[in-house]
Each structure stands twice: as C-alpha cells, then as structure tokens.
C-alpha cells in the first residue's frame, strides 16, 4: 500500500512539474500573440485586458511593409542552402573521421567542438571585410556560407556519433563484397543513420533560422533575414509593438510546423544507438 501511494505521489509530482514547464515555455509565446491581436491601448493596459476583440491588421500590415515578405523568403533560401551545404560536406567528413585512419584525427575532433563554441561576433569583422572584397556581402549565398563556420562543426560532431554506432562488421562485409568507400557510405551508413541525419538537418535548420548577430552584420537589404526584419520594427523614437509581435509570431510558425512533422526523426536520431 505504501509503495502504491509513493508511486502515485511521484507520478503526480512529475505531472505537476511537466505542466509547470509547459506553461513556462508557452506563456511568453501566448503573451506575444495576445499583444499582436490587441489595439495599442489594450496591449499595454494595466491591469492586463483579458477579454477583447481580436484585431488582425498587424498580420496583414507586416506583409505589406518593411520588406518582411522578402526577408521571410531570404530566410527560407538561406536555411535550405545552409543545411544542404552542411550535410553534403558533413556526412563524408563524419564518415572519414570515424572510419579512415589519418594523423591528427583526435585533434581535429576536439577542434570541431571548440570551433562551435566560439562567439559569433569574432567572425563578423573579418567576414565583413572579405565579403565586401569578393562580392558576397548582402547575399543569400554569402550568409549560407558563413553559417557553415558554426553549423558544419555541429553537424559533423553529431553525425560522427551516429556513424560510430554502425557496427564496423557491416562495413567490413561490404568491403569484402567489393564496395568502395563511397558505395559503403551510400549503401550502409546512409540508410542506417537516416534518422540521425534528419535530426542533424532539423537542428541545423533551427539554428540558421533563428540566427541574428551574423545576419545583422553581413546583410543590409537584399539578403536580410526574418530575424533582422523583426528587429527592424524598432524605430529611432518608438517601437512598433503590434508589427514586431505579429512578425515574431509569423517567424516562429515555420519552425513549429517543421518540428511537429519531424519530431519522430528528432527522437529517433537523438536516441540512435542508445539501445543496442
């Protein structure tokens, strides 16, 4: 009886903590959304106005002003290009680090982890000067390339762990059957680590989509991303809170939808190899 009561209490406490965590996570989003559909007067009324008539003009207005639509499109393109580059380079690099013998492998692995920890602002000035000279400043390709400084080490480090879980005996058998290194990677590693590759792509896409510091420094107008556009609703003497909150909600919707459809791959990828 005591054991059942103890388990019931533990379960109840776990549910309460989970509910608190969900509320703490979703309440800021709910608050931003409520401001975006309120009038200026209701948005900052004290005490807060909980019952009001929704106003949707802010969501219509952001697509018509401040270049938000172009910035949204830029973010989609930069994210797709950045993720594709990270996987095209990261997959064979992770395979090589795991399976090919070469000098300095351990040092390279440590350096990949360290380079991901560098603050973003360290690269802004040299990249700004370089991109100005070679014509990549304020371009989608330039932004996708500079993001590889952070996304690529992260992708290689994750993929390295996924590839390490593939039994080496499978590769040996494939090599005995006459498969080349490329064929082994394509026929053995890619199918077995597909959830891990998908999880890597998703996490990389989320980082690129949400990045602001580099995009703010290396874009001006033609390639500015959605995060820069959201920050652009802050004026010199005032802040367009209605536009900023509406743009913020719109900017997080793609990642919510993406994560909802891909959550199975995230779970499978992050738990790949956990159970042998």
Q: Can you describe what's shown?
A:
With 276 residues, this protein is mainly α. The chain has two domains: 55 residues; 207 residues, MetI-like fold, CATH 1.10.3720.10. The protein has 14 helices and no strands. The longest helix is centred in the first third of the chain and has 35 residues. The chain is globular and about 75 Å long.
Order of helices and strands: HHHHHHHHHHHHHH
Shape: globular
Tally of individual helices: 14
Helical amount: over 70%
Q: What would CATH call the architecture of the largest domain?
A: Orthogonal Bundle
CATH class call of the largest domain? Mainly Alpha
CATH topology of the largest domain: MetI-like fold
- Compute the CA-based radius of gyration: 23 Å
* Largest pleated sheet: none
Core attributes:
mainly alpha; 14 helices; 276 residues; MetI-like fold
Topology of this protein?
Layout: H1 2-36, H2 40-43, H3 57-62, H4 68-99, H5 105-117, H6 124-134, H7 140-146, H8 148-164, H9 168-176, H10 181-192, H11 194-210, H12 213-218, H13 226-231, H14 241-270
Helix pairs in contact: 1-14, 4-7, 4-8, 4-11, 5-8, 8-11, 11-14
């Amino acid at each position: 009886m005591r054991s059942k009561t103890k388990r019931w209490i533990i379960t109840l406490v776990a549910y309460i903590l989970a509910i608190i965590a969900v509320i703490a996570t979703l309440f800021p989003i709910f608050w931003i959304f409520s401001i975006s559909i309120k009038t200026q007067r209701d948005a900052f009324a004290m005490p807060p106005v909980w019952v009001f008539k929704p106003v949707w003009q802010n969501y219509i207005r952001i697509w018509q002003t401040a270049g938000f639509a172009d910035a949204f499109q830029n973010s989609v393109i930069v994210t797709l290009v950045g993720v594709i580059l990270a996987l095209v380079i990261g997959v064979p690099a992770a395979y090589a680090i795991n399976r090919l013998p070469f000098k300095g492998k351990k040092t390279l692995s440590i350096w990949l982890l360290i380079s991901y920890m560098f603050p973003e602002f360290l690269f802004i000035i040299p990249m700004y000067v370089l991109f100005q000279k070679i014509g990549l400043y304020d371009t989608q390709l330039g932004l996708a390339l500079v993001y590889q400084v952070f996304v690529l080490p992260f992708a290689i480090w994750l993929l390295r762990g996924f590839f390490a879980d593939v039994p080496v005996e499978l590769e040996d058998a494939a090599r005995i059957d006459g498969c080349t290194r490329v064929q082994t990677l394509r026929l053995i590693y890619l199918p077995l680590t597909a959830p891990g590759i998908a999880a890597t792509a998703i996490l990389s896409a989320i980082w690129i989509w949400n990045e602001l510091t580099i995009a703010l420094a290396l874009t001006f107008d033609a390639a500015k991303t959605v995060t820069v556009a959201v920050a652009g609703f802050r004026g010199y003497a005032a802040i367009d809170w209605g536009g900023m909150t509406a743009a913020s909600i719109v900017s997080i919707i793609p990642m919510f939808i993406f994560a909802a459809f891909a959550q199975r791959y995230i779970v499978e990828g992050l738990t790949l190899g956990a159970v042998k």
